Amino acid sequence: MLQSAKQVLHNFTAGPSILPKEVFEQASQAILDFNESGLSILEIGHRTTLFQPVMDEARSLVKELMQLGDDHEVLFLHGGASTQFMQVPMNLLNENGIAAYTETGTWANKAIKEGRLFGHVEIAGSAKETNYTSIPKNLSVSPTAAYLHITTNETIAGTQWHQIPYDCGVPLVADMSSDVLSRQLDFNKFDLIYAGAQKNMGAAGVNIVVVNKNILGKVSRAIPSILDYRNHIKEGSMMNTPPVFAVYVVMLTLRWLKQQGAVVAIEKINDTKAKLFYDTLDSLPVFTGPVAKEDRSKMNAVFVMQDAELEKEFLALCKTEGMVGVKGHRSVGGFRISMYNALSLESVKAITDLMKDFANKKG
Ligand SMILES: *Cc1c(COP(=O)(O)O)cnc(C)c1O
């Protein structure tokens, strides 16, 4: 963050969101002079010997950090995670076929809506009845379904899958936009993972797609070339001009993650941050968390107050303390703080201290 006139000390924004300071510095330098080439990264060809190593390193870092086997390909594509809502069923779901989806909130519902354009969608489990404050537990998945889709972390509702349904019996597809590489998962057990980069791994403008190549080529529809995963695999994510700068920022962020000690290390820090936050929340009756305890997100914590006036007061206080991104999503209200990989424990400590002070004065 810049030391500007208006001091921002803690950035809890949900997305695009905080990245490591080193990444901002290195990305800035690359705009002025990329790798001492005398050229900006914004003015070099994507097929040059300057950029190709960036794409290669970004790809191999994803493979390494997720510990992926040879069947899994890593792609860098345009269009945000929202494009994947339709690209997934277009590539995997036949017109007369079934796809199973879990209905866990705003993002899952957007994926469901697009899925219905391509085939039959069955709801394998829903949290609608709890107003999306929980994660469905007993899923019912047709054995003939082309895949089961889950949203591993619902960014708006503040819920997260802590028990991944690896053994659902059909290919597993996940929208990991807001918790990708924040915790250790058995990434090889997912047949397709997609994530917009701008929450936990880079700048807006690119998503990563990790796909088990064995599930491709099974639908009968004609797929437009640019939307066919197989073409992007063949062309190494260079079928057309990739979002060069956004891929570079992902590469830098993944280098940083590796330096931190990779996913195993960041998960420990993320666990510590989440525990500090939720322990504090549970100790202060003036604040309430609507989400079922066992389904709370370690990335996006949602909380409210009973009194709207007090909410305003607390928000104003956050602002004077240099905290941004604390206001809840317009559909939920209250507050939401996002604790992505790059957010420090100090920032969580700062807001929990503020909550305690506030509760002491108002309680
Ligand atoms: C932000 C978000 C999206 C949408 O990402 P875009 O890149 O804006 O399309 C999808 N799914 C989840 C879980 C998100 O948090």
Shape: globular
Strand-residue proportion: 15-25%
CATH class call of the largest domain: Alpha Beta
Portion in helices: 25-40%
CATH topology of the largest domain: Aspartate Aminotransferase, domain 2
User: How are the strands of the biggest sheet laid out side by side?
Assistant: 2-10-9-8-5-3-4
Bound molecules: pyridoxal-5'-phosphate
Write structural notes for this entry.
It is a single chain. This protein has 363 residues and is α/β, with parallel strands linked by helices. It folds into two domains: 24-259, Aspartate Aminotransferase, domain 2 (3-Layer(aba) Sandwich); 262-362, Aspartate Aminotransferase, domain 1, CATH 3.90.1150. 34% of the residues lie in helices and 16% in strands. It contains nine helices and 14 strands. The chain has helices spanning 21-32, 52-66, 80-92, 106-115, 229-234, 244-259, 262-283, 308-320, 345-362; strands at residues 10-11, 72-77, 98-103, 120-126, 148-151, 153-154, 159-160, 172-175, 192-196, 207-212, 287-288, 300-305, 323-324, 335-338. The strands form four sheets. It has a seven-stranded mixed β-sheet with strand order 2-10-9-8-5-3-4, with helices on both faces. Helix 4 links the parallel strand 3 and strand 4 (120-126). Helix 7 (262-283) runs parallel beside helix 9. The longest helix has 22 residues, at 262-283. The radius of gyration is 21 Å and the shape is globular. The two termini are 34 Å apart. 43% of the residues are buried. The structure holds pyridoxal-5'-phosphate. Pyridoxal-5'-phosphate is lined by residues 15, 80-82, 107, 151, 155, 175, 177-178, 196, 199.
